[in-house]
Amino acid sequence: MKKVFLFLSVAALLLSGCGDDEVRVGSVTVTATSTEFIVGNALPTLTAVVTPDDADNKTVTWSSNKPEILAVDVETGVLELKVTDLEESEEVKITAMADGQSDDVTITVKGLISYYEILDFSSEFGLLVLDRNVGATAAYDKGAADNTAANGNFYQLGRNVVVATGATEAANAEFDANWTAESAGYVDWSVPANTPCPKGWGVPNQTQFVAMMKLLENYNIDLVDFDMITKEEYDAAKAANAKMKLAKSGYFREASKKYLPGAEAFWSAAYHTSGAPWGYVHNLFPNKSRETAKVAMPIRCVKAAP
């Protein structure tokens, strides 16, 4: 019995000595190509560096504290966006762990709304308004020599496909000359979530648009010259136009044509009682066609003020 016990003790000692030779991970360092991500852009790439180089267990396991927003592949560290848009920014912590050591990086996920400035028109007509059309890379600037960047994208009513852009001012191959409210894929733009607007925003309905039109139109057609409005009403309309970043020479009617040559800033909305969308167009000679499902128009988004 003593010989057996001695043999087991020596074996245990030898095994213990082998464990002492294992090289443990000392640190994990995580980096990201970007710590800010806007919906629609390319996702950041993550890298984890494990030291020392000769550590025995360098296998990295990834995790996200908000996988419902930004998930990460457990083995590869490849990110995957799980939402189509966000109303508020979200901070997501991505963690890499190896052999009991870990490090993390926080990525701020921003929604499409981050591209815009929010204009507060709560006192004028009870709405918050985005400072430019959907897809525009800049807001209208009265002093700019070229406002093409303020045009944004063009859409057919009830169809969230870009059929033209302000940069080209011509319908592309996506334009459907036979598009109607009965076409497959047509969606109801009176529901904000169905529109190309950022999450939580939508295309103004007729009531909302009329409220804006009553104020803005006073400046656009200079009714003060005909004693139809007071100087105070005119000044209020002038200030509202400047605040909304609209050009004075525009006026209100249905957005029309496949494209609007020479346009600088736009406004559009759905729906008029006739079924046509209301529209603000900065263009001296807009076509009066009422075939609104067939035309392309730009979109400015709104939501009710809190």
Please tell me about this protein's structure.
The chain is an alpha+beta fold. It folds into 2 domains: about 25-110, Immunoglobulin-like (Sandwich), CATH 2.60.40.60; about 115-305, no CATH class. Helices cover about 15% and strands about 25% of the residues. The protein is built from 4 helices and 16 strands. A 4-stranded mixed beta sheet has the order 2-8-7-4, with no helix packed on it. Strands 9-10-16 form a 3-stranded antiparallel beta sheet. Mean pLDDT is about 75; it is low at about 1-20 and about 250-290.
Return the average pLDDT rounded to an integer. Answer: 77
Number of domains: 2
Distance N to C terminus? 85 Å
Low-confidence sequence ranges: 1-19, 249-291
Order of helices and strands: HEEEEEEEEEHEEEHHEEEE
What is the structural class?
Answer: alpha+beta
Percent range for helical residues? Answer: 10-25%
- Tell the overall outline: elongated
Key features?
single chain; 306 residues; alpha+beta; Immunoglobulin-like; 2 domains; four-stranded mixed β-sheet; three-stranded antiparallel β-sheet; 4 helices; 25% strand; elongated; disordered N terminus
